[in-house]
Design a protein that fits this description.
mainly alpha, 494 residues, single chain
């Protein structure tokens, strides 16, 4: 009793001294082994506590307190021992073999079975609890998670309502539910439960983080961003949390806000290549191609073997300085991912923009063999044929592109150019106007329309010349073709 008193008061040193004396007087007493394990567990000595509890059980195979203490020890240390959950369940099962209605063993078994995905077995354990215990928030939370995981929405919702009405409902109850609710895609329940808890007591930064991500998955982006902000300002500031905020802001199409979070993350971890890569991707959303290239360049230097970084760097380089600068990055990407036809298309496009048509054609011809890149490849092959005045080949390639994608303004504009070269001005105007209907600011289509009016002496030439001049003044070097070629996926692991 004296030892237990010292343990309750937190005087573990005095409890340890009395235990040492007791061991001399009563070396085979299981009760003292059990108490020694309690002291060692509170001191953080996991292995010593495990041995003490096991020794107590060996001396007395029905010492319930030792089994329960051993089970709790395992549950509190599953990060140190990957077998801890299994061993905890075994400890509780030993109690239930001789004491099948033990409330603690049944409840903790239910929690462990929930964590292991044995949801029906977990429900069975809860059903063995006394009726008064089954109505507590702890038991209701386990049942609610079990039924949600089993897909019984009606029963899960009913239990959630009971939880919300329970005065002893706490964050800890929700936390033991989270894994099952996430697996069953019941973010609506997570939001409902945590929102209610938040009105009673401020939520911890960790729980706010969970709530924010649930809002995001439910596409409630304003609530997600506000909640994640609260989590950060409450003490959860990290590179990971800033990346999450950047992702949510990007989903809201607040690209400048997303860049702000990424800039903060970059300040915290300037050697993190992923941050530079994401920063570059968002710069592209703002047509800041030079800034994007600088960020991709930094990412590649930090991690030169990353395929995605090389691809992005190549794509951004295609639209700045000499397009040929993109070539080594696309070739590096192909070394790392030789089966990806997108890179073959991108490499062909880079050679095309550098006006190295002989080098471009083999890559474009190869990418034309794949469904996902064929349309754009035929477009570029048609453009090259036009440049080299191989007009029959040009029209075949452009029509092949339009067969797959009839509303392709780039191909329509070049088809209009083909008819201009053939001096078929009626067809030329038809194709150019189709392109402009799809994209009124299409630069090439507006230029070809001006050329058409000039060749035909059309009175609309002066107005179109002004229109084209306006487009030239407004035109910034944008990565439109890059965005068509590259499937940009911000905030996923590259």
């Amino acid at each position: 009793m004296q030892i237990q008193g010292f343990i309750r008061s937190g005087d573990l040193a005095q409890a340890g001294r009395l235990l040492a004396e007791a061991a001399k007087q009563f070396p085979a007493d299981a009760g003292f082994d059990n108490l020694r394990g309690v002291v060692q567990a509170q001191q953080g000595n996991y292995r010593a506590a495990e041995i003490s509890f096991q020794q107590a059980i060996q001396r007395n195979t029905k010492l319930t307190a030792a089994y329960l203490n051993l089970g709790r020890l395992y549950q509190e240390n599953f990060l140190k021992d990957d077998q801890a959950r299994r061993k905890a369940l075994e400890a509780y099962q030993r109690v239930l073999e001789y004491e099948p209605e033990n409330a603690e063993a049944n409840y903790q078994s239910a929690v462990l079975l929930l964590q292991q995905g044995r949801f029906q077995d977990s429900i069975t354990r809860v059903s063995l609890l006394p009726a008064s215990t089954q109505s507590t928030a702890q038991a209701l939370s386990v049942l609610c998670a079990d039924y949600a995981a089993l897909g019984d929405r009606k029963r899960a919702d009913e239990l959630a309502e009971q939880l919300l009405a329970s005065s002893d409902f706490s964050e800890l109850d929700v936390r033991q539910m989270l894994s099952a609710l996430a697996v069953s895609k019941r973010d609506d329940l997570i939001i409902s439960l945590l929102d209610s808890l938040g009105t009673r007591k401020p939520l911890s930064p960790e729980t706010l983080h969970v709530l924010g991500l649930s809002y995001e998955r439910e596409n409630k982006l304003n609530e997600a961003r506000a909640t994640l902000e609260r989590s950060v300002t409450s003490g959860n500031l990290s590179v990971a949390s800033l990346l999450e905020l950047a992702r949510v802001a990007h989903e809201q199409q607040d690209y400048r806000g997303s860049l702000g979070y990424l800039a903060h993350a970059r300040d915290l971890d300037p050697e993190n290549s992923r941050i530079h890569y994401y920063f570059g991707l968002v710069c592209l959303d703002l047509s800041l191609v030079a800034e994007a290239r600088n960020s991709f360049d930094r990412a590649v230097k930090l991690d030169p073997e990353n395929a995605s970084y090389n691809y992005a760097m190549g794509a951004a380089s295609t639209f700045l300085r000499d397009p040929a600068e993109a070539v080594p990055y696309f070739k590096k990407y192909l070394q790392l991912r030789p089966q990806d036809p997108r890179a073959k298309l991108a490499l062909g496009a880079a050679f095309f923009r550098a006006k190295d048509y002989d080098s471009a054609i083999p890559w474009l011809a190869e990418s034309a063999q794949f469904n996902q890149t064929a349309t754009t490849a035929h477009y570029y092959l048609g453009c090259i044929a036009l440049q080299e005045r191989r007009l029959d080949e040009a029209v075949r390639e452009l029509e092949e592109a339009l067969k797959a994608k009839p509303e392709y303004p780039d191909a329509l504009a070049e088809l209009g150019q083909y008819y201009l070269m053939r001096k078929d001005y009626v067809q030329a105007e038809k194709q150019i106007r189709r392109a402009l209907e799809l994209d009124a600011d299409h630069f090439s289509a507006n230029f070809y329309l001006l050329r058409l009016y000039t060749l035909t002496g059309d009175s609309r030439r002066e107005a179109q010349a002004k229109r084209y001049e306006e487009l030239q003044k407004l035109r910034e070097q944008k990565a439109q073709e890059f965005l068509r070629m590259v499937e940009v996926r911000p905030f996923e692991t590259p």
